Structure formats: structure tokens, C-alpha cells
């Protein structure tokens, strides 16, 4: 089956995006919305490869095949979250820190919309009290990056394997949340942090990232190299976005893969 035809943007989303339009830069120059789609990132990637300009925004009310890092499924119940993907065409220098900048931006957007102050966990998870609130997946093409993000907004019945480690804005706040406002503020924050990278303010992005990740550093972590597990203390994140871990044999620079945080 092919991708279904997009529908008109719901009024509440259209109004929220119009209010932040002056802060969005290139983001949202074209907006495509689906009641349901397999994956917003798949749609965005296909259009990026066909030559669409930077800033294309694809949003869905639900995804049937949403995904996170390392091929994991991203649970996308209908109406329960934000499921969005954006096409960027960054320079190599900007692309280097785009994922970390996006983590900062999503946390800042949530804070601006709700007052909740999420934390970050390397490389791109947005958490609240250790439970995952939002996730980010950046996928590179030949001349573009598709940045997908999901935010758990409403209380929802997540799959059993997700339920124990996930949370939502409504669960954390104990009240209803304006999903359209959260989306709009997240996009505005993304535009601002993307602007920081484009204008050479990498230091500001990394300082904001380290501030929100402070509680995660100093903790024990585990990761796999060539099929063998390694352990150490997460010490800091360097200016290139790598996680530096103190092990018995010295400081190790982790640049990719899964890091498991040991409670």
C-alpha cells in the first residue's frame, strides 16, 4: 500500500503554528498532516530525496510504524502524542550537533508550553524522573537530515514493554495539556537552536545540553563493543557530542550505539 493522501491541517494546529510563525525560520514552510501514516520520517525522507526544500514538516495523529533509535518501535497511539518529522539541509558542521541541539530544543519547548522541566540523557532522550517523555531520531540522506521526534502528551495504553519506562506530560503534570501548543513551542525552540548551530553558537547549545543532563552524569553506564560489555562512570559530553566515560583503563569516548544507564 502507498502513502495515504494528506488531509487539511486541523484548526487547532493551524492556529498554534500561525502564532509562532515569526519564530519558525524555515520550519513549516510546507506542512503535511495525516490522520494516520506508517511513519512521518518515511514520508519526509521520500520528499527530501525528491528535492523538497528545507523546513518541510510532516505531522500525524498516529503512526502505524513509528520508530526510534536502533530500530526500536516508537509507540504512537492515536491522538496521544506528537509525531512529527522535519527536513533539514544543514552544513556538515551544523549536522554534527543537530541531534543534541534537537534534544535541548524539545526539552525547552515542553518547558515553555507546560512549565515542566525535562532532563536529557545521552544522546537524545528527553526524560522526567528517569522515565522517557520524548525521543528524537535523526536520519541522514545524501544531502539532507530528516529529524523525527515524538512526545508523549496524553495518558495512553502503551505496549507492556514500553509502559514501565515511559511517561507523558499529562501523567507528570496531573492535568490536561494543549498538544498543539506543545508542538508549536517545540518547533520554535528547534528553529532557535538550529539557528545557533548555523551561526556558530555551538557552545551555547552544549551548555544548555549539559545543564539538562547534569543528573545523568556521574552515573554508571554500560555499553557493548564487539559483543563485549564495558562499564564505567559517565563523566561528561565533549564539544563534539561524544560521551566520555571513565573506566578502569582510562577515559573512553563513546560516539554511537546504545548506552544503558545503571540505576
Describe the secondary structure blueprint for this structure.
Elements: H1 11-20, E1 31-34, H2 40-49, E2 57-60, E3 81-88, H3 92-96, H4 98-114, E4 119-121, E5 125-128, E6 131-140, E7 145-152, H5 160-163, H6 169-173, H7 179-198, H8 202-212, E8 220-225, E9 228-237, E10 243-247, E11 250-254, E12 259-261
Parallel strand pairs: 1-2
Antiparallel strand pairs: 2-3, 3-7, 4-5, 5-6, 6-7, 8-9, 8-12, 9-10, 10-11
Give the helix proportion (percent range): 25-40%
Largest sheet: 7 strands, mixed
**Overall SS class:** alpha+beta
Which runs of at least 5 residues are low in confidence (pLDDT < 50)?
none
Strand content: 25-35%
First-last Cα distance: 44 Å
Q: Which topology of the largest domain does CATH recognise?
A: BirA Bifunctional Protein, domain 2
The helix/strand order is HEHEEHHEEEEHHHHEEEEE
Number of distinct helices: 8
CATH class of the largest domain: Alpha Beta
The CATH architecture designation of the largest domain is: 2-Layer Sandwich
The total tally of domains equals 2
The strand order across the widest sheet is 1-2-3-7-6-5-4
Count the E strands.
12
Give average pLDDT, whole number.
89
Quick one: CATH superfamily of the largest domain? Answer: Bira Bifunctional Protein, Domain 2
- Sum up the overall morphology in one term: globular
Q: What is the alpha-carbon Rg in Å?
A: 18 Å
Amino acid at each position: 500500500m502507498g502513502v495515504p493522501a494528506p488531509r487539511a491541517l486541523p484548526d487547532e494546529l493551524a492556529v498554534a503554528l500561525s502564532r509562532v510563525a515569526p519564530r519558525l525560520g524555515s520550519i513549516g514552510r510546507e506542512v503535511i498532516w495525516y490522520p494516520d501514516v506508517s511513519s512521518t520520517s518515511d514520508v519526509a525522507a521520500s520528499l527530501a530525496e525528491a528535492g523538497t526544500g528545507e523546513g518541510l514538516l510532516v505531522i500525524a495523529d498516529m503512526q502505524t510504524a513509528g520508530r526510534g533509535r536502533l530500530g526500536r518501535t516508537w509507540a504512537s497511539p492515536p491522538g496521544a502524542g506528537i509525531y512529527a518529522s522535519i527536513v533539514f539541509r544543514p552544513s556538515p558542521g551544523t549536522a554534527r550537533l543537530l541531534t543534541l541541539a534537537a534534544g535541548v530544543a524539545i526539552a525547552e519547548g515542553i518547558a515553555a508550553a507546560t512549565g515542566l522541566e525535562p532532563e536529557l540523557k545521552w544522546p537524545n532522550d528527553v526524560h522526567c524522573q528517569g522515565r522517557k517523555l520524548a525521543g528524537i531520531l535523526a536520519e541522514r540522506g545524501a544531502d539532507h537530515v530528516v529529524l523525527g521526534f515524538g512526545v508523549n502528551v496524553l495518558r495512553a495504553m502503551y505496549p507492556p514493554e514500553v509502559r514501565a519506562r515511559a511517561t507523558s506530560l499529562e501523567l507528570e503534570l496531573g492535568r490536561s495539556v494543549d498538544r498543539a501548543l506543545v508542538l508549536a513551542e517545540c518547533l520554535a525552540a528547534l528553529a532557535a537552536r538550529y539557528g545557533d548551530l548555523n551561526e556558530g553558537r555551538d557552545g551555547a547549545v552544549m551548555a544548555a545540553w549539559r545543564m539538562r543532563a547534569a543528573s545523568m552524569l556521574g552515573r554508571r553506564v554500560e555499553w557493548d563493543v564487539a559483543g563485549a560489555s564495558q562499564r564505567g562512570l559517565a563523566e561528561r559530553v565533549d564539544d563534539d557530542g561524544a560521551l566520555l566515560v571513565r573506566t578502569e583503563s582510562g577515559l573512553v569516548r563513546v560516539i554511537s550505539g546504545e548506552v544503558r544507564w545503571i540505576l
